[in-house]
Amino acid sequence: MQWPNELPNFCTNGVLNGEAIFITEASLFHPVKAKPTERKICLLTAHSVFIPEGKSNHMSETTITFAGSGDTLGSGGRLQTCIHTDADSTQFLLDCGASSLPALKRHEIDLNAIDAILLTHLHGDHFGGIPFFVLDAQLVSKRTDPLIIAGPPGTEKRVRAAMDVMFPGLSEVNQEFEISYVELEDREETMVGSLRVTPYRVVHPSGAPPYALRVVVDDSSIAYSGDTEWTDALVDAARGTDVFICEAYFFDREVPYHISYDTLHSHYAELECDRTIITHMSEEMLSRLPDIELEHADDGKQITI
Ligand SMILES: [Zn+2]
Ligand SMILES: [Zn+2]
Predict the structure, then answer these.
(1) What CA–CA distance (Å, rounded) separates 99 from 214?
(2) Which residues line ion ligand 1, judged by CB < 5 Å?
(3) Quick check: 93 and 83 in contact, CB under 8 A?
(4) Closest residue by Cα to residue 206 from 76, 40, 95
(5) What pTM does this model have?
(6) pLDDT digit string, tens, across residues 220-271
(7) Residue-level pLDDT at 60
(8) What is the CATH number of domain 69-304?
(9) What is the largest CA-CA distance in the chain?
(10) What value does the mean pLDDT take over residues 43-55?
(11) Cβ atoms within 10 Å, residue 89
């Protein structure tokens, strides 16, 4: 691109001569040479946008709703993990804890618009909602579109077993919609519908490999820790993402297989992401929310990236 010598007077994002325009500060962009002290306003056309390394330039909007932000044991009366993402091309869930169906209905989320459920690990507060979701799809929502369930190796067997323990025969019902299973391998990027999903092995015994997940949807990227104690795999999962959602179970008490807020905070500088939000908090952690610097999730919290 030839950099214009004369910049127009200030104008807002919009359309100029039939082309989309973006106004930005030159000092944020590489390789535009602007001294940080001269934070010039520059105009870029849709055909000449520079994307700084490690950052995305969003052409679409993705909305994340924390339908459930709770821990395993209902601390603070919060519902179990269920993170709904609504992007231009698809909708999906990150984990589907046992209370997910009422959580999703509380927020009037269209269940039939959810194309995929991505599972970090196979604990009931992260996948126990699937039998209810499937039963509702069959009896109430009258789903016809396929549903993809993706998770660690063993996901299909455990999900089918959970269905049959709760509602005997459910896994064998000939539904009006197809359920397909995708089992993810550590650090292998896999297409799940239109999602690019990369799992990172973490530390949280749950009968199958536990993962943090990094998901690219349209031009947005989300990382989610699942449950784990601190591991450098989280740095890899979060790198370059728009938002990193991370569990913080206790404030400063260290227990195996979970992260304390203190530990996460001590590694905060290593996280190369735009935003970090903590979730999956115990009563003790919830009581310390007034003391923390990092952003936290609540049931119903909605963000746009
Ligand atoms: Zn959990
Ligand atoms: Zn767990």
Answers:
(1) 24
(2) 72, 125, 227
(3) yes
(4) 95
(5) 0.82
(6) 999 999 999 999 999 999 999 999 999 999 999 999 999 999 999 999 999 9
(7) 81
(8) 3.60.15.10
(9) 72
(10) 40
(11) 12
